[in-house]
């Protein structure tokens, strides 16, 4: 079912945001980020996240539009249990170009990037969580969904999921989120790209 963005609960509400029947537009604050320890040795829990409750298994997907141009500019979906157990996935700008990025955090963060397609100013991201397995897929058009990541994630009775955006090196990134839905976990074969 499609979600009304006004029904979410903010973690680190941005100063500038607007929600209506068609989507959510926000502008990131100064040096916002989510990260825990690995490589850099610091913990950040200051990124913007609009949380919606889920059951123990679900599929959530969203369309993301923005001009990602500065190091670590990022936007997509977050799944969160608490400040030590979360996942963020979507676009991240690094090494001079945009990549699809996933950070899985269970006490400490890991980070992976890939480019199954390069046009990342307008794309879709999907997260499916069921039975301790997190499946992340991305799409240019909302119809073909190549696998981005498969990772373990703690089993719980409920999670929070929703749009997230961060700019660790600046402020002022404007991001548009739309076509957000949360529903039963899609249990198709791992190599089914529909």
Automatic annotation (TrEMBL):
Originating organism: Rhizobium lentis
InterPro entries: ConA-like_dom_sf (IPR013320), DUF1349 (IPR009784), UCP022704 (IPR015987)
Protein name, as recorded: DUF1349 domain-containing protein
Pfam families hit by this protein: DUF1349
Lineage top rank: taxon: Bacteria
Lineage: Bacteria, Pseudomonadati, Pseudomonadota, Alphaproteobacteria, Hyphomicrobiales
């Amino acid at each position: 079912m499609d979600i009304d963005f006004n029904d979410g609960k903010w973690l680190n509400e941005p100063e500038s945001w607007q929600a209506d029947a068609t989507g959510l537009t926000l502008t990131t604050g100064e040096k916002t980020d989510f990260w825990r320890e690995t490589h850099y040795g610091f913990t950040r829990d200051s990124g913007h996240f609009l949380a919606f409750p889920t059951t123990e298994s679900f599929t959530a997907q969203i369309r993301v539009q923005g001009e990602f141009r500065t190091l670590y500019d990022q936007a997509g979906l977050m799944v969160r249990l608490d400040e030590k157990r979360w996942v963020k996935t979507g676009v991240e700008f690094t090494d001079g170009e945009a990549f699809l990025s996933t950070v899985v955090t269970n006490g400490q963060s890991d980070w992976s990037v890939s480019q199954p397609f390069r046009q990342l100013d307008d794309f879709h991201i999907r997260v499916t969580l069921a039975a301790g397995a997190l499946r992340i897929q991305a799409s240019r058009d909302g119809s073909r969904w190549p696998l981005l990541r498969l990772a373990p994630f703690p089993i719980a009775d409920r999670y929070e999921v929703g749009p997230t955006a961060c700019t660790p090196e600046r402020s002022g990134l404007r991001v548009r989120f739309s076509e957000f839905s949360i529903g039963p976990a899609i249990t198709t074969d791992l190599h089914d790209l529909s």
